[in-house]
Specification:
- The chain has about 230 residues and is an alpha+beta fold.
- It folds into two domains: about 70 residues, no CATH class; about 130 residues, Beta Polymerase, domain 2.
- The protein has eight helices and five strands, in the order H-H-H-H-E-H-E-H-E-E-E-H-H.
- The chain has a five-stranded mixed beta sheet.
- Helix 1 crosses helix 2 and helix 1 crosses helix 3.
- The protein starts with about 35 loop residues before the first helix and ends with a helix.
- The N terminus is likely disordered.
Length: about 230
């Protein structure tokens, strides 16, 4: 899907929101050895696909590589370089509309976290890190003693979903349940992915990333983010 340079998703109802808390550019210690010009170009092109089309980093980098005519041996940006490029794109092209969209998605995520509280839900991905737009999906990680418990809960509440498989943070396959949820603020449907992990995986899920940040947060942490944004 072709991206258009300089375009960013419009806010809910076409009304701009507050400036986003996308933060200062991400500092990656490994970037002290500066990435090459080509790496930065790949990241910049891929960032457009992430922001405008809601792509994940992997597919966005592949699309950027295809657009630039690169081989598999190209100097591909890592995820921290990608995140910095995404934040820069948002800051330049859509600093106002993205804030309202992020808030709407976080509030929607919190609704589902409350509904699924028995499974210790933790929010991850762009909605947690603050780089989501209206095209982003919501990723919730559930931790269960019985891997089928979450699926049975959806069935009991007559929630339509599609089962599948996703890649966990250690590269292992995990069960994924995908459902559609209406976001009134955005006036559209949003995909919510429920990634089901063994209960013992919770500790690994909270291990800080390369920048010392929590890669996921529970409902309490998400409420704190929303409260901080309200002031």
């Amino acid at each position: 899907m072709a991206a258009i340079l300089g375009r960013c998703p419009e806010g809910a109802g076409g009304k701009p929101g507050r400036r986003p808390a996308v933060g200062a550019p991400v500092h990656n210690p490994r970037m002290d050895a500066q990435p090459s010009d080509l790496t930065r170009e790949i990241a910049a092109v891929a960032a457009r696909y992430v922001v405008e089309d809601g792509m994940e980093y992997g597919p966005a980098k592949r699309q950027a590589g295809h657009q630039l005519g690169l081989s598999a041996k190209a100097p591909w940006p890592d995820n921290l370089v990608m995140e910095a490029a995404v934040r820069e794109y948002i800051a330049v092209f859509c600093p106002d509309t993205q804030a309202a969209e992020l808030q709407a998605l976080r509030e929607q995520a919190l609704v589902w976290m409350d509904r699924l509280q028995d499974f210790q839900p933790h929010l991850g991905g762009a909605v947690w890190h603050g780089t989501a737009t209206r095209h982003s999906d919501i990723h919730l990680h559930l931790f269960c003693d019985d891997p089928k418990a979450a699926e049975l809960s959806l069935l009991d509440h007559r929630v339509d979903y599609q089962p599948g498989t996703a890649t966990g943070w250690r590269g292992e396959p995990v069960d994924a349940l995908t459902l559609r949820s209406r976001n009134t603020a955005l006036g559209q449907w949003v995909l919510v992915h429920l990634l089901v992990h063994d209960h013992d995986g919770l500790r690994g899920a909270l291990k800080p990333d390369a920048l010392g940040r929590k890669p996921r947060g529970d409902a309490k942490a998400l409420r704190a983010l929303l409260a901080a944004e309200a002031h």
